[in-house]
Amino acid sequence: MWHIPVNHHLRPVYRLLAGLTGLYVLVFGITGVVVSAGSGLFDRGDTTALGLRTNMAFSVLSIAAGLVILVGLLFGRNIDQFINYYGGILFLIIPTLMMALLRTGGNFLNFSMTTVVVSYIIGMVLLAAGLYGKIGTEEDKRKADWYRYSHH
Prior knowledge:
Shape: elongated
Largest sheet: 2 strands, antiparallel
Number of helices: 5
Helix content: 55-70%
Structural class: mainly alpha
Number of strands: 2
Strand order of the largest sheet: 1-2
């Protein structure tokens, strides 16, 4: 994947954005568990956390996702880049699937259109952090730059 920049000068900004995004997902999940306590795992009621519809299953998944993002940032060393890149892709695919199920009985995560939009935003932030968060040696940077600017 030589087309991904190495040692991008805005990497700290993208790491910060990914960290804030992971923190938001974690807080959303924790809040969701608190407000959906006592309801079913896949309940499709009007339970909301931070303005988004949720249920216990979606809240627990959000806690897991937030923890994975934050732990990846703590480890660094391109682990965060990997998690952010593929996590961003997942945060774009899952709401697309859930959007197709919004008005059906298959909406098991209790998504709303607002939840879909917020998930897309989270996915784009994580994907950008994954694309610009790669670190490497100066040799890796030279190779990546050569490929991006000289290779046709």
